[in-house]
Design goal:
By secondary structure, this protein is of the alpha/beta class. A hairpin with a 2-residue loop joins strand 7 and strand 8. The longest helix has 19 residues. About 30% of the residues are buried. It comes from Mariniblastus fucicola. This is AAA+ ATPase domain-containing protein.
């Protein structure tokens, strides 16, 4: 008996510790009114779901809508009385299987014409706003140890590390600029890992009769969920999903349209903007200055949100809504930032960090790191041969991507010829011919600048 009480006490203590680490956790609704949704909306989701699958148990329908079965039982009964659904036999655990009647199928058509969304029930906009504010990336202040852990398996020199630290800690925007191939995008994507690992976001949002889809598998990665864990036993609102803090990366394909709520007039379902999808995480604008939109257009669109941390978006109904602008904005560019935007914009992006070419010492370190990943023996003399033969005579600039790319080509050559992968001078001679071209070389530099400090 004492052991049981001890175990229970330990479990409760552990659960309390886990919960204390969460700034926000959605509680399971105990009634339909607790969902914050009109009953007619929940009814439409049930009818449309049955129209899609034909027959389903009450519990399975509740699971599909991510709502507790207990709060839907009365609604099932109401739909039966209105002759929209009918019992199709018993189901386990004191449940029934349901299907649509003829009137129910007609009603499903009407609902689908109004809005074709079928899936987890949405959450009210205000609930989402409160969650984003509670889980803001600015509420955290990553320390040196957290940065070390996030960048542990990539090469980053100490000077750059000291510059990145305060910038990331501030939670404000930053520019990463420098020559292509030096790891700006890689660094930007690692920055999210410096912050708390997991947040809650809803599958969809409801406001003014509109459903806005937020969860996007392309950007949002579910946190690992252990079915036997204490957290699984603690009930939460399943309309929300726990994810790792998102890193949304957009490049030259970004348009002004992607910065607004996009509405599909055929389905009458809306899609959240990139800013909303990146809330509580990082938004990386890669190759800034090469988008389809002019930097000045982006300036005009974001100059107020960058200052106030609030964005205003328009629904298809014409209503303007206010949503948090709570992400770390990172601009990665090969161009000088001052050539792209004016002083007003630069003032709102307080940190500008240049990612310079690696030194020869770091270049060797990169080869050592990638040799381990490619499972081949690192040979310092062979890397020296590469520098003396293919870099110094041609005033070729070092890039952090070169070790990875050259080793990848060597691996492909060895696999094709069915020979062991090794660092050999003749292998570098072969792959250098196909990797380096005069067109991509850029302007020549002096020997000292080409190979960097020793």
């Amino acid at each position: 008996m004492s052991d049981t009480l001890s175990n229970a006490s330990l479990s409760n203590s552990l659960l309390a510790t886990i919960m204390a680490d969460e700034s926000f956790r959605p509680n399971e609704p105990s009634s339909l009114s607790d969902t914050g949704l009109p009953i007619s909306l929940v009814e439409s989701l049930i009818v449309k779901r049955l129209s899609n699958i034909g027959v389903s148990s009450g519990r399975q329908l509740a699971n599909d809508l991510c709502l507790p079965f207990s709060i839907l039982e009365e609604l099932y009964q109401t739909l039966r009385l209105r002759k929209f659904i009918v019992h199709k036999g018993s189901a386990p655990l004191n449940d029934y299987n349901y299907s649509l009647t003829e009137d129910g199928r007609d009603r499903a058509i009407v609902y689908s014409q109004s809005c074709s969304y079928v899936g987890p029930a949405p959450v009210p906009l205000m609930d989402y706003v409160l969650s984003a504010e509670a889980q803001s990336i600015r509420a955290e202040s990553p320390k040196r140890s957290q940065l070390r852990n996030a960048f542990r398996d990539i090469s980053i020199n100490e000077t750059l590390f000291e510059s990145l630290g305060p910038a990331i800690n501030s939670g404000a925007g930053l520019f990463l600029y420098g020559e292509p191939g030096n790891g700006k995008s890689t660094l930007a994507q690692r920055i999210t890992q410096c912050f708390g690992q997991e947040i809650w976001i809803p599958h969809a949002i409801y406001e003014d009769g509109q459903i806005i889809k937020l969860f996007d598998a392309a950007y949002h990665h579910r946190a690992q969920d252990d079915g036997d864990s204490l957290m699984s036993a603690y009930a939460h609102d399943r309309r929300w999903v726990k994810i790792k803090r998102p890193t949304v990366v957009v490049g030259g394909e970004m348009t002004m349209d992607s910065l607004e709520i996009r509405h599909d007039p055929n389905s009458n379902v809306s899609e959240a903007s990139l800013q909303m999808k990146s809330n509580c995480g990082c938004l990386l604008i890669d190759d800034f200055g090469r988008q389809r939109i002019e930097p000045q257009e982006l300036l005009n669109r974001w100059i107020v949100p960058l200052e106030s941390r609030i964005d205003f978006l328009q629904l298809s109904t014409g209503k303007k809504i206010q949503v948090p602008f709570e992400q770390l904005i990172i601009f990665s560019t090969n161009l000088e930032p001052s050539q792209l935007v004016d002083e007003a914009f630069m003032r709102r992006i307080p940190y500008k960090i240049e990612i310079a070419d690696p030194s020869t010492k770091e270049f060797h370190l990169l080869f050592r790191i990638y040799c381990e990943k490619f499972k081949c023996q690192y040979e310092e003399r062979v890397v020296d041969y590469l520098l003396q033969t293919h870099y110094i005579p041609k005033n070729r600039r070092l890039r952090r991507c070169h070790p990875r790319d050259l080793l990848s080509q060597i691996r492909n050559f060895c696999v094709y010829n069915d020979i062991p992968m090794e660092l050999r001078p003749e292998f570098f001679d072969r792959v250098a011919k196909s990797y380096f071209t005069d067109v991509l070389e850029g302007a020549p530099r002096t020997l000292a600048k080409a190979v960097g400090p020793q």
